[in-house]
Amino acid sequence: MTTTNRSCFVLMPFDKGRLEVYRHAIRPAAEAAGFECHRADDNFENGAIVAQIIRDIFNDYVIVADISDKRPNVMYEVGIAHTVGDKTIIICESGQGSSLQSQCVQSHIL
Hints:
Layout: E1 7-11, H1 16-32, E2 36-39, H2 49-59, E3 62-66, H3 72-84, E4 88-91, H4 99-104
Parallel strand pairs: 1-2, 1-3, 3-4
């Protein structure tokens, strides 16, 4: 994936249930806002996927992190994203409240 100043990288588990959230909610919303949206498994390249994820976190304009399932790998990636600056939007499925989300959420205008 070639990153642009309108690229959106989504951090979330790769399971089937979350894929539906990505395909039917996150990606359409990002594209409607003018972003090119992708996940690490959209364009998997040879090599370590963690290196690819870190590269995309650093290069993409905005990061959307779905922490609904509280997966350790997603939380790790959110931590990396927070070192880059104020470009991470954290989302969580209703009913799965998270202290991380309530402490970190800031308003972003896309």
